[in-house]
Specification:
The complex is a heterotrimer of chains A (287), B (370) and C (272).
Chain A lengths: L2 H37 L1 H4 L6 H8 L1 H34 L2 H12 L6 H12 L4 H9 L12 H25 L3 H9 L4 H12 L1 H16 L3 H6 L7 H10 L4 H26 L2 H7 L2
Chain B lengths: L5 E10 L2 E11 L4 E5 L6 H9 L6 E6 L2 E2 L10 E4 L11 H11 L4 H14 L15 H13 L5 E5 L7 H18 L3 E5 L2 H7 L2 E6 L2 E6 L1 H6 L4 H6 L4 E11 L2 E6 L4 E5 L10 E6 L5 E4 L13 E13 L4 E7 L2 E7 L13 E7 L4 E4 L4
Parallel strand pairs in B: 3-8, 3-9, 6-7, 7-8
Antiparallel strand pairs in B: 1-2, 1-4, 4-5, 9-10, 11-12, 11-14, 12-13, 14-20, 15-19, 16-17, 16-19, 17-18
Chain C lengths: L11 H23 L17 H4 L5 H35 L4 H13 L2 H15 L5 H25 L4 H8 L4 H30 L4 H4 L7 H11 L3 H24 L2 H4 L8
The chains are: A mainly alpha (287), B alpha+beta (370), C mainly alpha (272).
Chain lengths: 287, 370, 272
């Protein structure tokens, strides 16, 4: 390697040092330490043990919590897809200016704390909230609908905060679809429905895939929304991990729960990837 | 002893395993405009970057104004450079862009204003001083880039394909402008381009490069009329190429037989060919004259050194100042250019005509793989 | 089918888009009027008009204190993360060291792990090294979650940076440090600035990491609201939230002006 090239590598390393210190000291090392705590006794120094993980899988309560977390995340993905896909389609057909405007509108609430957005939903969905108030006044119902502090409330809250990822992922893949394809399909005499199923949908699969995995992962690890909109009855993995850590001070179990959450999310995403990546899909999109 | 403004002695540079610039020797005199010409990947830009100080040569000696440039960084070489992409600083006004080099040289404010104004007038754009590069057209941007390069009165001006991002008409306009400026200021200039017309228009001398090797250094006329190699002949201008074998050779005259059986006479120029040797023979389209097949005698006949072949006209194109014919000669398409395109009986497509050219105009080089 | 229109069209797709946009914005739209209620009941539409819930914020020192605390934390985290992230992005883009793909992945890795898990692991590790519950510990973890955004934004900014500008400056006589200061930095400043604003908002809004690292003396505003909300729901939350919304809106406006929000998220809606 020439002197100049060596100097460049040194310069690069020097500039990277501060970030590396942060990433290693506050992320990589703590993650490894947490792994130790979850698999060794006496706070990560004693004998090797799988007790925490055994405890989890032998207790039906924890299995129920994990299943609930997965179930709510799947509902959220479905809601985001059903509501988000048409928005992405609309954006793909709009002018760049309109696209920018819609992007701005759905992104900007994202920059406001999730605590506050959830609070807004509480005002809308609670027993004397906006929706129940309106329906009661119109005489459509005679006692308030239960929209909050149950699984429905959690799904509404999660959909609100995660739909933006689905919309942008799908929209990005639709932008890449050449407009001439639609014209070609139109000339060949495809109906609108046919055009959707034979052109739009297949070509947006990478976007759907990206959006789905992202929304699912984020829903699995969401803490604030289940805590604020699910109440005490809807316990999900992040909430019980928090309780074990901060209320029961059972750090070994807390650490194990964190890894189980991470592992189950990655595992399910991998499973889903396998499921979607059929041969044809791979051939078309692997490049 | 003459002191050259730029001197390269055995300069070479390798990237990975390949020699990008191989044993480059050149002396540029004061006020000269020298062009590096060649296809992409020929090493012209690499050489320019070594002169500019963006790259270190692996070996050889590079001197500017007699001083060795080994280990001297770009910012200490006192050069002016114009880039293909203009490279004006987008966050500075035109005035600030042009003044930047003076500011670095700690020129007094008054002096700076005077010189910026002067150089903007030189490129005929004094009215855009307060604008930002974004607000200028491509041609204006390049003029400002030229002004920025000239304002420090550099010892050497480097032009890295400065015209290739402009459309055809602007390119011609700016080409004239560059020539005027170069002559007016008399700054020693090194110009890099892949456009031979630009090279011939602007330069005192052209360096033709191919695969890192200097193929020929010479005035534009010499390069065109006496190419030193098969590559130069093919790269500069348009040529008809025949593969042939030398059948006889005496007194600088040779007889060749092409692969499809045509007999050619050729004078020996740059390359001395031997009897029985496999060669490539070139003839430029404008050196071929046409006559109707039945005309027994060509106007120039009687010189005795002419080549005469018969062929069938396949395609006639009118290109403004000249016309071009593709003539099929024994299966080989031969291009003929003429300023008097005769669309008359006997010269239409599909008709048989006679092609004539002087043995003097045939260039012969050692046979080269396509 | 591909007819383009600059105006909103009332098609089924347009209708759903309108509904979704409304859904995403409505929680915020509803909070502000609610905060002006004259009663003690949290309801929409609100009854009466008063500023009493804004005045009452000052009766709760925990909100005022945590606001200033959050502000201090977010500003520090943003400045440090911007400095670190910008240097890292420059290293990656300008010098392209061997393995830059892996380094890039490492720098962005905190984004790929749920922040809840980052919070738990930080608590465990910080307890071990004596940083749990300290301001330093909280600050470090906020820098960690902000750095990836800065790296990504500055890299995006650099991707359109033309390095011949640096060559042009060098030829004119500028030393590399002078070149960086006069040319490179000003040209990529919008990207750096956006990275800083984004880092600020990331820290200022964070709950899931702070959750594990705060102490009674170091509580952030979102945490204070979160804790308060779990005990009681009064219009006080609405008035505090309204102030936070206003603050965030100012930043969103600045971001949109300087950089464009969609570019911020790597969406290429302007490319067609």
């Amino acid at each position: 390697m020439s002197k100049l090239a060596r100097n460049k590598v040194w310069a690069a390393l020097l500039l990277l040092v501060p970030s590396f210190i942060i990433i290693f000291g506050v992320f990589v090392l703590p993650m490894l330490y947490m792994l130790m705590i979850s698999v060794r006794e006496d706070g990560g120094t004693g004998a090797w043990t799988a007790a925490q993980y055994k405890l989890f899988f032998q207790d039906p309560y924890y299995i129920e919590v994990l299943w609930r977390t997965v179930r709510l995340s799947l509902w959220t993905v479905l809601a985001c897809l059903i509501l988000g896909y048409p928005v992405a389609m609309y954006m793909a057909r709009a002018t760049p200016k309109m696209r920018g405007f819609i992007t701005f509108l759905i992104l900007s609430p994202h920059l406001i704390s999730v605590v506050i957005r959830n609070f807004g939903w509480v005002v809308i969905l609670s027993d004397n909230g906006f929706i129940n108030n309106t329906l009661l006044k119109l005489g459509l119902i005679d006692k308030p609908l239960r929209l909050l502090y149950n699984e429905l409330g959690v799904v509404i809250g999660l959909t609100d905060s995660l739909i933006v990822y689905m919309v942008l992922a799908v929209a990005t893949s639709l932008y890449a679809v050449d407009a001439s394809l639609y014209k070609a399909a139109g000339i060949l005499g495809a109906s609108k429905a046919r055009m959707f199923f034979s052109v739009t949908l297949p070509l947006s699969m990478p976007g759907i895939f990206a959006g789905t995995t992202l929304v699912f992962s984020l829903a699995m690890s969401a803490f604030v929304t289940p805590a604020l909109m699910g109440g005490t009855s809807v316990k999900v993995m992040p909430v019980i991990a928090y309780e074990k850590m901060m209320a029961a001070y059972d750090w070994s179990l807390g650490a194990a729960l964190a890894f189980l959450l991470l592992g189950s999310t990655l595992g399910l995403v991998a499973f889903f990837t396998k499921l979607v990546e059929t041969k044809r899909h791979k051939e078309v999109f692997s490049s | 002893m003459t002191q050259y403004d730029v001197e390269l002695q055995g300069v070479h540079k390798r990237f990975g395993g390949t020699a990008v610039v191989d044993n480059f020797n050149l002396q540029v005199e004061r006020g000269e405009c020298v062009t590096f010409l060649g296809p992409s990947g020929c090493g012209k830009t690499t050489t320019l970057n070594m002169i500019a100080g963006f790259l270190e040569p692996d070996g050889g000696e590079l001197r500017i104004k007699g001083k060795s440039m080994n280990g001297v960084p770009a910012n200490k070489r006192d050069l002016g450079m114009v880039f293909q992409t203009y490279s004006l600083f987008p966050h500075m006004t035109v005035e600030e862009n042009v003044a930047y080099g003076l500011k670095l040289r700690k020129t007094s404010k008054r002096d700076m204003q005077v010189r910026v104004r002067k150089v903007l007038e030189l490129v005929k754009l004094p009215h855009v001083a307060d604008r930002y590069p974004k607000q200028l057209s491509g041609g204006q941007r390049q003029r400002i880039a030229i002004a920025r390069a000239l304002v420090t009165e550099p010892s050497l001006l480097l032009l890295d394909e400065p015209l290739s991002n402009l459309d055809a008409k602007l390119r011609e306009e700016l080409r004239e402008e560059l020539k005027r400026l170069q002559q007016e200021i008399g700054v020693t200039t090194i110009f890099v381009t892949h456009d031979q017309e630009e090279a011939m228009y602007l330069s005192d001398r052209i360096v033709v490069l191919d695969h890192g090797k200097v193929e020929q250094i010479g005035a534009p006329e010499d390069i065109y009329h006496s190419p030193a190699s098969a590559f130069v002949h093919e790269f500069i201008g348009k040529s008809n190429r025949f593969e042939a074998v030398v059948t006889s050779q005496s007194n600088g005259m040779g007889a060749l037989v092409t692969t499809n059986g045509i007999t050619l006479k050729a004078e020996q120029h740059m390359y001395s060919f031997q009897e029985g040797e496999r060669v490539s023979a070139y003839i430029r389209p404008e050196h071929i004259r046409m006559a109707a097949a039945h005309e027994e005698r060509d106007a120039k006949a009687g010189l005795g050194e002419d080549n005469t072949v018969f062929g069938t006209v396949r395609l006639i194109s009118f290109l403004g100042s000249y016309g071009e014919l593709i003539v099929d000669v024994e299966g080989t398409p031969v291009t003929v250019r003429t300023h008097t395109l005769r669309r008359q009986a006997g010269f239409g497509e599909g008709e048989r005509i006679k092609l004539i050219w002087d043995a003097h105009d045939v260039s012969v080089f050692s046979w080269k793989e396509e | 089918m591909m007819r383009e229109s600059g105006r909103f069209r009332l098609t089924p797709l347009g209708l759903i888009t309108f509904f979704v946009v409304l859904m995403v914005i409505s929680p915020l739209l509803i909070i502000v009027p609610t905060s002006f209620t004259s009663t003690g009941v949290l309801r929409f539409p609100p009854e009466g008009f008063s500023l009493q819930w804004y005045i009452k914020i000052f009766d709760r020192p925990e909100f005022v204190d945590s606001f200033w605390f959050s502000l201090k934390l977010a500003v520090l985290a943003a400045v440090i993360a911007t400095l670190f992230g910008t240097l890292a992005a420059l290293a990656l883009h300008k010098y392209r060291p061997p393995g830059s793909g892996a380094i890039n992945a490492l720098l962005l890795s905190p984004l790929t792990v749920p922040s809840l898990i980052i919070g738990i692991s930080a608590l465990l590790f910080f307890t071990r090294i004596g940083l749990a519950g300290t301001f330093t510990g909280l600050l470090l973890s906020h820098i960690l979650i902000s750095v990836p955004y800065v790296v990504r934004l500055v890299l995006t900014g650099l991707s359109s940076f033309d390095y011949t500008l640096e060559r042009a400056a060098a030829i004119l006589g500028a030393h590399p440090i002078r070149t960086f200061w006069d040319i490179t930095l000003p040209v990529i400043r919008p990207a750096i600035f956006s990275g800083m604003v984004f880092a600020f908002l990331t820290s200022f809004d964070n709950v899931t990491v702070s959750l594990f690292l705060i102490s009674p003396s170091t509580t952030t505003l979102p945490m204070a609201i979160f804790n308060y909300m779990q005990e009681s729901l009064t219009p006080l939350v609405a008035s505090i939230s309204s102030i936070m919304i206003l603050l965030s809106l100012i930043f969103i406006f600045i971001l949109e002006r300087v950089y464009g929000l969609d570019r911020l998220f790597g969406s290429n809606s302007h490319s067609h």
